[in-house]
Amino acid sequence: MSLPSKLRFARRIIKHRLHHQPCVCPYCAGPSPLKLMKRKKFILDILGCEACGLIFRWPTESPEEADAYYQDEFSPKSPQISLPNTTELNKLLQRNFAATPLDLGPKIRLLKAICPSGRVLDYGCSWGYGTYQLAQCGFQATGFEISRPRAQYARKHLGLQVIDCFEELKASPRRSFDVIFSHHVLEHLPNLKDGLDLMARLLTDGGLTFHVLPNFTGKSAVSGMWLHWIGEEHPIAPTIDFFARNLPKHGFGQIRFASSPFDDALTNALLQNGTKALQTDGDELLLLASKVS
Question: pTM surpassing 0.85?
């Protein structure tokens, strides 16, 4: 975030506090017991919902404010967000993004070991670098990205099919995808409940969700880092406990958790260990779940 963006965010949050924005869990969306976990920068309250287990920040932004933020302000200098020029893009494509901050190869190879082929929705695909890598690995990949400029870049420069309107995605036929893949997206969703319902609707029976996100209960998080991971960019901090408690309500089963590193040891453990618990101390959490028939 640039300084002006930080100031704009602070102004929005202070405004909502002064106007007594209702303090409700964004997942439960109604009265539920809340616990104050921390106050951050004097203006943000980090709260835990005792009904569903979700950790979130309050005040929250309006849907219009959130949309404007992701269109114009969100991490503009991050390579995952910044749109490369032609020369930069050609260099990235020549190496298929390997050994760059945009390299999703280890995670996609893990996905391919579990599900060798199929129709994949890259949920929150930014400018398409992950969707492109999924397609290069043999998946029928479609992207979804709410930032219209980034979605347009993916269509124009990478030749990808990318949906940039939530209503258009909702209008997609049921069971359109065999896999829903996301990479550091779920923690950005102010309305996670609707997002999970939509994913369940779009998945085939037995279809797989493959989500990677910050591990808010991993070793680094427990040491205090989790507080830095929730704030301006991350309005919520969904944890293993949250997903275990709530994913079945959305029609998901066979829920499994693991964490980084995404290496051969993790792949072998997932393929061989059945339903046995895997280590979850890493900084990145892997969430796997299947759509119940």
Answer: yes
